Automatic annotation (TrEMBL):
Domain ABC transporter substrate-binding protein PnrA-like: 45-139
CC annotations in GO: plasma membrane
Organism from which the protein derives: Promicromonospora sukumoe
Pfam families: Bmp
Disordered: annotated segments: 1-24
Keywords assigned: Lipoprotein, Signal
Taxonomic path: Bacteria, Bacillati, Actinomycetota, Actinomycetes, Micrococcales
Protein name as annotated: Basic membrane lipoprotein Med (Substrate-binding protein (PBP1-ABC) superfamily)
Amino acid sequence: MTGFAARFVGSSHQPAPEVTVRPTPGTWDDVAAPAEYSMVVIAPGDDPTTATLTAAVEHYAAEHGADLTVLPARDHDEVEQRIDEAVAAAPDLVVGVGDGVVDVFSLITAQYLETDFLVVGAQLPEPTHNVTAVVWPGAEFRGTALGNDPAHANAVTPGRAREAVAAGTASVLHDLTGIVIELG
């Protein structure tokens, strides 16, 4: 494991798939996306939470010079279409924002094991090694079948969303994938 990875997870051992890690705040601050890094964000809906999370991905991409494509989706069928479109574009990272991606990502991302996915502000109930999630109190949705609450709008602030995107992307860049990152 790299020095960053050990500091990030607080251990010299690679975390097991699906484990939740609580990284030391700020350990990801100096991690920069490499030149020509490409991202696609799937944005389900136009609610304030989705808008805040999407803006955080846009901010990260602008700050790091990453190429970003935003694919809006109105419903689950469009989320599935957008996943297929995103994978076909072969970006370095596909980002799904908020509760609206969880159910479809749970079904579809396992079909694309060679693609890295990041879910921000929610998590999959059974992620595969290629899906990393970032959650925090009030933004921990795991799918409609589990009966838990959707994200609380007041929990998804611009600052927290930016922190989540930066931490999640840093984790993926250092091959710490298939885990859930819990921000305090």
